[in-house]
Design brief:
- By secondary structure, the protein is an alpha+beta fold.
- The chain contains 14 helices and 15 strands.
- It has four domains: about 5-10 and about 80-195, Reverse transcriptase/Diguanylate cyclase domain (Alpha-Beta Plaits, 2-Layer Sandwich); about 15-80, MutS, DNA mismatch repair protein, domain I (3-Layer(aba) Sandwich); about 200-255, 5' to 3' exonuclease, C-terminal subdomain (DNA polymerase, domain 1); about 270-380, DNA polymerase, Y-family, little finger domain (Dna Ligase, domain 1, 2-Layer Sandwich).
- The longest helix has 21 residues, at about 285-305.
- The chain is globular.
Length: about 375
């Protein structure tokens, strides 16, 4: 069966979240910065939206330079904890689309795409806060048309549930899927079938090859190699002589679109979170608790479905002025009990409301320190 991998890359993730949270920002150049605190605009650009990019603003640029390029741009501080909460929701959504490990049980729809999986963990790899790989070989039967339809479903669900767009790449391996996702940004989808790999890679500049650094690219250019196609045609022994066996072989294989690396999530890195908007801005705990309880029910369902326990509980609160606060608590033992999570989240919320007088606009709950269940844990243990 032909292998099929999907790469999902969120579009200008931080800036897009800020626009979603504050609709007044739409249509404006939005620049999210890592401020140093030395002066009003000291620091560097973390990311920006596509409007800002039209003015030449880009990641890594000093914020003061970005201000000169577009004085009317809106400069905002990075809110990493909040972005992580949104990311957790998206990553949990994506996991539902991935193949499962051995002994997977599934129920297929009429076209084989709408399968519902249970059992082993998904074959999924979160690369960063805003991108991930999904192995979908079994789910699509190795059919790229099915994969294209699955990719569209992913895009539609993220847009519907999170009001954010993403770009999707589909390929016979991680390398090609990753490179394909950047072809039609923003909000695009690009399949590269096995027979099209050479034509896809050949004309691209060396710097477009995922995993190839600038120093290596310069050394290759000194040898007259400018494109990925030229690298693929180059003698492998010369590459080994110049870069060593491991790197030389990798350069030859990657240029030919060969990548056998598995899709595999980093152990212990996963968190599951949920966040929602309150019916009205408030700091009345009796109005906030029902929403917190609904978020917890959703989290517990996800944890139970995958037989996971948690040790860290984090509460995220966004006030009416769009400022975000987070508080976390680490439990002494791994837990999976609904009441443990409910009680911990409420205790964190009570402390927050005592310390802060602002009305809240959104509230979120996240669990971390996830592990597979080793046995039944009761509330009595706590």
């Amino acid at each position: 069966m032909q292998r099929v991998v999907i790469h999902v890359d969120m579009d200008s993730f931080y800036a897009a979240i800020e626009e979603r949270e504050n609709p007044d920002l739409r249509g404006k150049a939005v620049v999210v910065c890592m401020f140093s605190g030395r002066s009003e605009l000291s620091g560097s650009v973390s990311t920006c939206n596509y409007v800002a990019r039209e003015y030449g603003i880009k990641s890594g640029m000093p914020c003061s330079m970005a201000k000169k390029l577009n004085p009317a741009a809106v400069f905002l501080p990075v809110r990493k904890a909040f972005y992580k909460t949104v990311s957790d929701e998206i990553m949990e959504l994506l996991r539902e689309y991935a193949d499962r490990g051995n002994d997977t049980k599934s129920s297929n729809g009429s076209n084989g795409v709408n399968a519902i999986y249970s059992g082993p963990a998904p074959i999924f790899e979160q690369v960063s806060i805003d991108e991930a790989f999904l192995e979908v070989t079994e789910r699509t039967g190795g059919d790229f048309e099915e994969a294209l339809e699955l990719g569209m479903q992913i895009k539609d669900e993220i847009l519907e549930k999170e009001r954010l767009t993403c770009s999707v790449g589909i390929g016979p391996n991680k390398l090609i899927a990753k490179m394909a996702s950047s072809v039609q940004k923003p909000d695009g989808i690009t399949p590269v079938r096995p027979g099209d790999v050479s034509a896809f890679l050949g004309p691209l500049k060396l710097t477009k090859l995922w995993g190839l650094g600038g120093v290596t690219a310069e050394k290759l250019q000194e040898r007259g190699i400018e494109t990925i196609g030229e690298l693929a045609a180059h003698d492998v022994m010369e590459l080994i002589s110049a870069f060593g066996k491991k790197r030389g072989v990798w350069l030859k294989q990657a240029a030919a679109g060969i990548d056998e690396s598995p899709v595999r999530d980093k152990e212990g890195s996963e968190q599951i979170g949920r966040i929602a908007t309150l019916p009205e801005d408030t700091r009345n705990s009796e109005l906030i608790y029902p929403l917190v309880d609904r978020l917890i029910e959703d989290l517990i369902a996800k944890l139970d479905a995958r037989a996971l326990t948690f040790r860290v509980v984090t509460l995220t609160a966004i006030n009416s002025g769009f400022r975000m606060h987070t508080k976390s608590r680490t439990l002494s033992h791994a837990a999976s009990d609904r009441e443990v999570l409910r009680q911990t989240a409420r205790e964190i919320l009570e402390v927050f409301l005592e310390e802060n007088k602002e009305e809240l606009r959104r509230i979120g709950v996240r669990v971390g320190g996830l592990q597979k269940k080793k046995g039944q844990t009761s509330l009595f243990d706590y």
